[in-house]
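Question: Hello, beginner here. Any chance you could explain the protein record under this note? Any guidance would be welcome.
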Amino acid sequence: MKQSNNPLHGITLEALLNQLVAEYGWSTLGQQIDIRCFTHDPSIASSLKFLRRTPWARERVESLYVHMLLHKQQNSQ
C-alpha cells in the first residue's frame, strides 16, 4: 500500500497535536473541536491520553490537521 499521499503517514499524534496548538492555540482548538481536554486546563499530556483512548475525538483532530495542511498548501501557491 502506497502512503505518499497520506498526510498523516509518519507523523505521531504528539507531533500533530503540537502543530495544531502552535497554529491555533488551545482556545481555538476548543472552539473547533468541543472536547473537554481542549477547554478545561488543557495540556499536551492529558490531551494525548484522551485522544489515544477515544477514536472519534482522534478522528476529529486528525481531520482538522489535514484541513490545516491543505489550507497552508493552498495559501503557499
Notes: The first helix runs from residue 13 to 32.
